[in-house]
Amino acid sequence: MILFYFSGTGNSKFVARQFCRAAGAECHSVEEDAAFDALIRAHDTVGFCYPVYGSYVPRPMREFVAAHVDALAGRRFVVLCTQLVFSGDGAHELCAFLPGGEESVVYAEHVDMPNNICNFPLFAVKNGAQNARRLRAAKRKILRAADEVGRGVVRRRGFNPLSILLGKSQSKFWPAVEEKAARDVQIDADCIRCGLCVRLCPMKNLTMGENGVEQAGRCAVCYRCVDACPQRAITVMFHKKPTLQYKGIAKDSSI
Ligand SMILES: Cc1cc2nc3c(=O)[nH]c(=O)nc-3n(C[C@H](O)[C@H](O)[C@H](O)COP(=O)(O)O)c2cc1C
Q: Of the N and C termini of the chain, which has fewer Cβ atoms inside 10 Å?
């Protein structure tokens, strides 16, 4: 089995790596520069791991699937989604892009992970030990998923009509939000032009121009730059200045 992940701020990378280690699967980021078609064709089962955005599939993952749809044809799929609290059918949403649709998905699971939206007042960001209980629950779910996939157990979280209905109540709004947010990166006067956001952006949306950071209208709203900016100078979608940024899962995490 081979698994591809997209991760804005590290949660989905963590889940992907833990799962692959337990399942003995090969693990790749969609941001790698690799011969993906050849890698896909060498495996019968292909996994995907991504964060849900508005109960929907992030643009980098949609673009990855679209770019490799011919190689993906005829394969079985495992879908792992990370989320803060709720997506309804975040894993099911990928079916619309997969060759073979929902019949080709043999396993789908949602894993609750820490919040990475650091400037929305309703959800506070937590870091370090504050996330321990959530991460322990996540690890149990990941290990169960690896075990069940290995034993051929079919579990398809979010594929029932109620989950799809609940998910759609959010995801039907997401494409419009995503389109508006794609060109809605804002940089405040605290920017020191260090270029970190330019280097980190998975969409190559940001460049350093004569007057500071410029955008190309391709933001995927992954929050990587918002959480990493040393000046907390960059925002997208919500424009409240972050107070506490999400720093990802510590390497020395005990889980
Ligand atoms: C733009 C955006 C939209 C999100 N929408 C949802 C959502 O609809 N439901 C949810 O439970 N979490 C939502 N989240 C939280 C993330 O899915 C969650 O924190 C995820 O684990 C982040 O993964 P990453 O670190 O791999 O990027 C959203 C996060 C972002 C940045």
A: C
